[in-house]
Structure formats: structure tokens, C-alpha cells
Write a structure and sequence with these properties.
Distance between the termini: 75 Å
Largest sheet: 9 strands, antiparallel
Number of domains: 2
Number of helices: 3
Structural class: mainly beta
Number of strands: 29
Helix content: under 10%
CATH architecture of the largest domain: Sandwich
CATH class of the largest domain: Mainly Beta
Radius of gyration: 26 Å
CATH superfamily of the largest domain: Exo-inulinase, domain 1
Shape: elongated
């Protein structure tokens, strides 16, 4: 038995030595590249925060913590050794380091799908997946197997006001974390295992410095394990205020910037009526537009017409009027394209679903193919109160609308649509919330 025990321990020791030696050899195979030049944010992309959220001072990246959001690298990384230093400026400060991240925030969230390495005063070093990413903790969580957060083996964090050093090794879907020189945590089976690196803003001031990376050989992961790219998008909402949108005195207290969300109470006092909408300052021609939205109001029972795939109504044989069915209704809104109320993408609770172009569908002067084309192919709305995402592509007089990842309007023709114009979030007298408003201009 003693010989067997000695053999097992020897084998484990040899394996540990082999892993350490392999890791050391891997680290020596690349060269260190600075991720921060100490002067500006070259190499980084502002995602969903204001330009003053992340700034540079005295060789540091200074994050105010307001609004909630992220700053990311301008390219993806897979296998690497990443080192950085950080310090919180007050007790209880919270932030994070995201790895293997998507380019844009998840639907209805200020953060991206990614693996988060916790940067919290008093609780540094946790590793966990967020918003659709996945991983396996290195040990069972005290709360049971349902909790996938990997807790650090020990607390080696320095208190608020002092610098802490992180070293993250990413290799083939496995993360190893060192805090102030000691290995404290691991995460396995990371998915995605290639993506952007992000610094998180979450409510309190934090400083970062000495960010550098050494890339290691790729394992050539399949596309399914690579984060989602989204190059060229610009945030139209900063999380701090309504810059980029026309400021009408009648909007005050009604269209409100509330951290990462735009909230609307349905009661703008602007005149005339079209000015109650929230209009972008800039006009756009061809573009991709992403808008998250939800209806936070209380739903009530209403009766609404049933729309056929060709855009017409089902007619009740007895009354000769459109047949109506009961629905739970939480209000109405929409997205105006190119300054046109006719080119409005509907947000509502009718059975046909959101995404319909009401003005074109009801215009009897339009060809049947046009009216059918602006009628949703399917209902892709999520339940009332939950977040939805429009991804709209407008090129010349053609538009495609995806709702929650499903195409509801496919290359529809909009005859007579203006060649250019602003975007509007529609006033319809109902409670609405919007978030993650991004635009990418196209040729």
C-alpha cells in the first residue's frame, strides 16, 4: 500500500512538473505586446459608454464607473498570457475583466457575452460566465452544482487604494488566474474560447495600468466557439445623457437617460406631435441599426385585428369588419427610418408580431407584393416585459428586419422612401425602454 501511495503521489508530482514546465515553455514561445501605450486608448474600442467614462491620465486608464458598460480591445484573442494592474479608489468598488467576449452587449444588458474575471474590492478573483457564455468551475460551488461560479482558492487581494496584479493564462478553453503572484483560480471548458478582452465600468472609479499580452499558438477553434464580431458599429446612446439625439424642452423628465437604458413615460410635452418622438441629430442613408427594447408597462386585455401574410385583415363574415381576437396589450411604439413615419417599424402586441411597416401595409396604392413584403413573416417577439432586439439593415429602398435573431422582414421594398433622414424612437403614449442603440453606416 505504501508503494502504491508513493507511486500515485510521484505520478501526480511528475504531472504537475510537466504542466508547469509546459506552461513555462508556452509562455516563452511568444513576445510581450503592450495593450496600452500609456498615452491614449489606441487599440481599444468604446462600446456603450461615454467618451469620458474611460480616459487616460498619468499612464493609467481611468474609469469613472458611470455608466455601466465596457471598453474592449479592437481585436480578438484566443490563447495568451495577459497581465495588468488595477486598483479601486473606494472600499466595495466593483468592476471586471471580461475575456472571450462578443463585440457588442448581450440583448437587454449593458455587458457582453463573455467570461468574467471579477475585479471587486473584497471579492477579487471569482471567474464566471455571463449572458450566454459557459464554463466549468475548478471545484464544486458551496451552493451546489447549479452555481457555475469558480471561487478563488485563497484571498491574495490588496485593499482599496493599493495596486493589484492579475495574470491570466488562456489556453485551449482553460483559464488560470494569478492574483499578486499566486495562482488562485481556474476555469475549464470556456465557450467562447476566443474573443475580445474588455474592461468593465460598474458604478465606481477604478484605475488600470501596465496592460500587456503574450499570444500563444492557436488551437484553431471552430466558429461555434469564437465570439461574435461586430466591427464598425457606433453607439448612439452613451448611458450618461441624450447626446446624439435632439433635445426638445418638452422631452425633459419624459425621455430620460437612466444609466444604460433610455426610459420613456409616454408623456412628452413637445409640439407638434411628431416632435414627441426622440429624433437622432444626424441623418442616415444606408446602415445597419441595432436597437434593444422592452415594454415595461402593465399589460391589459385588448382586442385587435388578425393580419394575414399578404398584409390584409381576416374579415368577419357576419359584420364585414376585420375579425378581432383578444391579446394582452402593453402599448405601442416603433422605430422611424430616414425621418419617415411611413417607414416605421412597429413595436406592438398584435398576433402578427413586431417589425411590420404599418404605413406601407395599409397603403392600398402599393402593389400587393409590397404590402406583403412589409408584413412580418413570423412573430418573433419575446413575452411582454422582456427585452427584444431589432437588427435592421437599410440599403437604398430595401429593408431587412431581424427580431431576436429571426428574420421577420426580408429585403422588403419601400417605394418612395426618402433617400436619407434621421432615426426616431417613437412616442405613442406608452411606457417604453430602449438600450444598446448602435449604428453602422454602409456605402
Amino acid at each position: 500500500m505504501r508503494n502504491l501511495k508513493f507511486t500515485v503521489l510521484s505520478s501526480l508530482a511528475a504531472a504537475l512538473i510537466f504542466v508547469c514546465a509546459s506552461q513555462a515553455g508556452a509562455e516563452q514561445s511568444g513576445e510581450w505586446i503592450s495593450l496600452f501605450n500609456g498615452k491614449d486608448l489606441c487599440g481599444w474600442a468604446q462600446v456603450n459608454c461615454a467618451k469620458e467614462t474611460f480616459t487616460v491620465r498619468d499612464g493609467m486608464i481611468i474609469c469613472t464607473g458611470i455608466p455601466t458598460g465596457v471598453l474592449r480591445t479592437d481585436r480578438m484573442y484566443e490563447n495568451y498570457v495577459l497581465e495588468l494592474e488595477w486598483r479601486h479608489m473606494k472600499q466595495g468598488g466593483n468592476a471586471g475583466l471580461f475575456v472571450h467576449s462578443d463585440a457588442l452587449p448581450a440583448r437587454g444588458q449593458p455587458f457582453t457575452r463573455s467570461i468574467e474575471v471579477q475585479v471587486m474590492d473584497g471579492n477579487a478573483g471569482d471567474i464566471f460566465s455571463i449572458h450566454g457564455a459557459s464554463m466549468t468551475p475548478y471545484k464544486l460551488h458551496p451552493r451546489g452544482p447549479g452555481n457555475k461560479r469558480s471561487l478563488p482558492a485563497k484571498d491574495t487581494m490588496n485593499p482599496a487604494g493599493e495596486w493589484n496584479h492579475y495574470k491570466v493564462i488562456s489556453r485551449n478553453g482553460t483559464l488560470t488566474l494569478y492574483v499578486n503572484g499566486e495562482v488562485v483560480n481556474w476555469a475549464y471548458d470556456c465557450d467562447p474560447r476566443k474573443g475580445y478582452i474588455c474592461l468593465e465600468s460598474e458604478g465606481s472609479e477604478i484605475h488600470f495600468r501596465n496592460l500587456k499580452i503574450m499570444e500563444l499558438p492557436s488551437s484553431h477553434p471552430p466558429m461555434a466557439e469564437i465570439a461574435t464580431r461586430a466591427e464598425g458599429f457606433k453607439a448612439l446612446y452613451t448611458g450618461l445623457d441624450l447626446r446624439n439625439w435632439k433635445q426638445n424642452p418638452g422631452h425633459e423628465g419624459h425621455w430620460v437617460a437612466d444609466n444604460w437604458r433610455i426610459k420613456y413615460d409616454g408623456k412628452s410635452e413637445a409640439e407638434p406631435h411628431e416632435e414627441k418622438n426622440l429624433w437622432s441629430e444626424k441623418s442616415y442613408r444606408n446602415f445597419e441599426l441595432i436597437v434593444d427594447w422592452r415594454q415595461p408597462g402593465e399589460a391589459v386585455v385588448d382586442t385587435v385585428p388578425v393580419i394575414l401574410p399578404d398584409g390584409s385583415y381576416i374579415i368577419d363574415e357576419q359584420t364585414g369588419q376585420p375579425k378581432k381576437v383578444p391579446v394582452m396589450d402593453a402599448g405601442d411604439s416603433g422605430i422611424y427610418l430616414r425621418g419617415s413615419s411611413k417607414a416605421q417599424i412597429n413595436i406592438w402586441n398584435w398576433p402578427i408580431g413586431s417589425g411590420e411597416f404599418y404605413g406601407y401595409r395599409l397603403d392600398q396604392s402599393m402593389a400587393p407584393a409590397v404590402r406583403a413584403g412589409v408584413t412580418p413573416i413570423l412573430n418573433a417577439d419575446r413575452p411582454i416585459g422582456q427585452w427584444n432586439r431589432f437588427h435592421i439593415t437599410m440599403i437604398d429602398d430595401r429593408v431587412t428586419v431581424a427580431l431576436n435573431g429571426r428574420t421577420v422582414i426580408d429585403d422588403a421594398l419601400l417605394p418612395g422612401v426618402p433617400p436619407t433622414g434621421p432615426i426616431a424612437l417613437q412616442h405613442h403614449g406608452d411606457l417604453l425602454e430602449f438600450a444598446n442603440v448602435f449604428i453602422k453606416e454602409l456605402p
